[in-house]
Amino acid sequence: MHCFACQSAIGPGDSWCSKCGAAVRERVEPDSERRFVTILRADVVDSTGLVAELEPEAAVSRLEPALAAMRGAVRQFGGIVSKELGDGLAAVFGAPIADDNHAPLACHAAIELVRRVGSLGDPGLQVRVGLHSGHVVAYMVASEFSKVYEIGGAAQHLAARLEAAAEANQIYVSQACQELADGHVRFESLGRRTLRGFGEPLPVYRVMGASDLSSWRVRRARSVSRFVDRTTERALLWRTTERVAAGRRTVLLMGDAGIGKSRLAHEFAQDLRAGGWRLIDAECSPNLQGAPYSALKRLLLSVLGGTARDPARTDDPRNSLPVVQQRAVDAVLDLPISDPQWDELEPHARRRAISDASCAIVESVARRQRTILLVEDVHWIDRASDTVVATLSALQCPDLLVLLTTRPSGMPVWIARCQAEIVAMRPLDDDSGLAMLTEMLGPDTANTDLKNRIISHTANVPLFIEEVCRSLKDSGMLLGQWGDLSLARPVDELGIPSSIQGVIAARLDRVSRQERSLLQIAAALGPRANQAMLRKVAALPEDVLQECLTALDRAELLVRIDSELEDSLEFRHEMVRQVTYDSMVEKVREGIHASILAALEADEAWADGPDTLCYHATRAKDWQKAFDHGRSAARKCLLSSAYADAVDYFEIAMGALDKTPMTPAREAAAIDVRMEARLAFSGSGRVAEAMDLGSEAERRADAINDIGRKIAAMTVRAGAQNFYGTPLEAVAIGEDVVHLAESSGNPGWRNLAQYGLGQAYFLAGRYREAEKMLATARAHLAGSAPSAPIGTTPRSLLLLCCMMDSIALTVTGELDLAERLQQQAVAIAEETGRPYDRVAAAYSGGWLKLGRNDPAAAAAILEDGFVLAQKHGIRLFVPVLACHLGIAYLEQGLFERARGMLTEAREEAKAVGYTSAVLRSSIYLALATHRLGDVQAAQNMLREARNTARQQGFSGLEAEALFGEAVATPPSGEDNKAAILAALRASIAIASDSGALPLQHKAAAMLNEVLASGGELT
């Protein structure tokens, strides 16, 4: 343990630091939690110069008035002073109790802080302030005599840098704070500023003063949606107005923040005004909770309107009041009073006069005209105004409708005494939520899925819907104007806009510690949980558990649902779950996931499978279990050819294992899992990374001197070279690996190495050698003791050998033998049912049908394989299937269709890094382009493909490109005729050497035709 002040070591039983004398402070971890807050940093400018020559007592006296003013300003607006710094302080708003207005409150506190210090009359005391809104870790630090609330995290450093950059008596704020407080406070942009410790310049704003806009006007100005639904609530309000002639009626609209209380109240009030009603309205503000009669002042100003500051007006309702009540109104309105009678009144008498005057004014207005008295957000009402509004809400006055709005946590204690009708507001229904979204996003059906996701994410809370849409638009996910927006790119996560984080956090702060703990366990479990799991992990007595679940259900945080799953519970909406989860500090989060993991492992009936176990093990940072379950989850994905998902789990497994202690056994496992992951990476088209797996595994095998695993790693690297490198490299490493594998006595890796070398020979145009090597591998795999390396099976590897050998035999013209191997490949694919195997069989089947000059049948087979490969993300096969499908279209005379498919094949091959597929698709794309009339472009493409194939050693593709050049070159002019003859002779020579008899025969037939016609082609 170390001293918080000087970091010196402290003994277990010490109460004081022996080095500096500071009291021992201990962090109480259970109180630690993540919070989204606004941080205020303030200090006295040049404080060192002010006190440098002073004695300690005098120095303290010099700065203390400024510090006292700072503390008072912070506390006036609900902030917590977390640390005093000698010449300044750090404060936090929005913690330990969440407040969705933390940014406006912090800005108002900063304005008041500067004003208070300035009013001290000491020109030497000038302050500067920095504000930033962000996530922090908040915790209690306990010493022997006191507790201090402190915060930690990068957010406080940005606030400190803004403070340091500010000029004297100026308030600098971050963009995050400005966006949250905009409308409530006036800002000036200072552009981007370079702040110490931050690499990139950041947007900085200066506070110019408080805004005179009410909260409702700020919200209305930001709103981009129209008022929808609320049929039930409006009907209740209209029914109340029908009875108002008999006497005053009071209605309380109650609901959580963002539910639409103000919107409904103002829409209804406007309807009444259109019917001849008088509106008196006032809004309670969180910034003015400490200012006596602030809400009542707004109410009286609404009544008096333009007469408020003109006592001579004859229609002023104050004129009929007794003098003492007139002075009472002047006092609330902050008008100057010079009346000895008022000065002599006791405080309770003044309060009575203010209440009587307010009631008299409202009654006088209601007698002349039906009146609606709207008081918003009474949960923020100041104490003095609360008493008066309570009296107004109980008046026995006909034609007066009192309409109040409040959050559940702030319902007035006096509401029952005035016989108010309480209207509990609920979220919108799905139809209304979709109508609201259609108004904002537009009617485009392309947004239907996004709209449904937003409905689910926000649970139809109007504010949440608006802010999520605004966030998507501000981030560039949605493009266009409100009412006509389109998605720029797919949306992975809808997220939680910072503007509503505090709203949700404030709801969570209303539950008890036990309820909060249960909610956190549920959040770690995911969007849906069951009571059995909660019971196991929470370890609460059954009666306490049920009491907590009932409270959470009543608060609509974790609700019981009708489901076939017994005792199912789910979060009212995903944002509540996410804010709950994010509020946990790392240690708490890890502990909960560890408990969940233990419960799942004890009873696997609760677990959905290894993927669920992997998730909780990773979040619990139990790296050995994360490796075990991640590997199991990857294997499960491989069985269904879900290669992209398998890659994700293999990466989790590899990363987790590398976090365990270094031992030879760990390194052996690290090599094995990389070998096992090879097919997932290559199958999903991440060929370069598959090669890196082999290289990394080879390095690790060398480090532990494991020859067997080194050969395995070299085999994987050699296989990846077939796609990512050149044939010469692939053949060289493939031959070495086969030799090593044969001598190592590991038949599984030998069989895979032989398959890879056969593929390398094929790509190099050495078709006879390819067929021979693949036949050897087939014989091993079809024998009595077939063997395959980790990550595959003998049957699947045999299928690949049959596929590749059938293709090689098709190229050499041995079609009957190719047919037998193709049938064997199809039989294995039907036996395994794996999409990968079916795609592989379709690939060789398409080759064979093209070799038999049946392009229509080839297209049918290749189309099925292409669709299957795309559906399952088997990206390795997509470019080659698309290429041969394009060839099938070309040979059927479907030239436009062929060009489109071959273009797609080439682009996909480039993306994957599949060099031979890029060349082959380029050759046949050129031929399709030639048939569509663009001869020059076709010739250029063919020339480029031929040169690339020659340089990189793809001799078979070089022969195909040469034949293509002969086809695409017009037989006009001696130069062209000579070029055609040269291309055909070169193609024949290469095809003859490689054993590609069908190509050799086609080129020879064309050459004979050219020679027989004297150079004139038909």
TrEMBL record:
<dbReference type="InterPro" id="IPR011990">
    <property type="entry name" value="TPR-like_helical_dom_sf"/>
</dbReference>
<dbReference type="GO" id="GO:0035556">
    <property type="term" value="P:intracellular signal transduction"/>
</dbReference>
<dbReference type="InterPro" id="IPR029787">
    <property type="entry name" value="Nucleotide_cyclase"/>
</dbReference>
<dbReference type="GO" id="GO:0009190">
    <property type="term" value="P:cyclic nucleotide biosynthetic process"/>
</dbReference>
<dbReference type="InterPro" id="IPR027417">
    <property type="entry name" value="P-loop_NTPase"/>
</dbReference>
<dbReference type="Pfam" id="PF13191">
    <property type="entry name" value="AAA_16"/>
</dbReference>
<dbReference type="GO" id="GO:0004016">
    <property type="term" value="F:adenylate cyclase activity"/>
</dbReference>
<dbReference type="Pfam" id="PF00211">
    <property type="entry name" value="Guanylate_cyc"/>
</dbReference>
<dbReference type="GO" id="GO:0005737">
    <property type="term" value="C:cytoplasm"/>
</dbReference>
<dbReference type="InterPro" id="IPR041664">
    <property type="entry name" value="AAA_16"/>
</dbReference>
<keyword id="KW-0547">Nucleotide-binding</keyword>
<dbReference type="InterPro" id="IPR001054">
    <property type="entry name" value="A/G_cyclase"/>
</dbReference>
<protein>
    <submittedName>
        <fullName>AAA ATPase-like protein</fullName>
    </submittedName>
</protein>
<keyword id="KW-0067">ATP-binding</keyword>
<feature type="domain" description="Guanylate cyclase">
    <location>
        <begin position="38"/>
        <end position="163"/>
    </location>
</feature>
<dbReference type="GO" id="GO:0005524">
    <property type="term" value="F:ATP binding"/>
</dbReference>
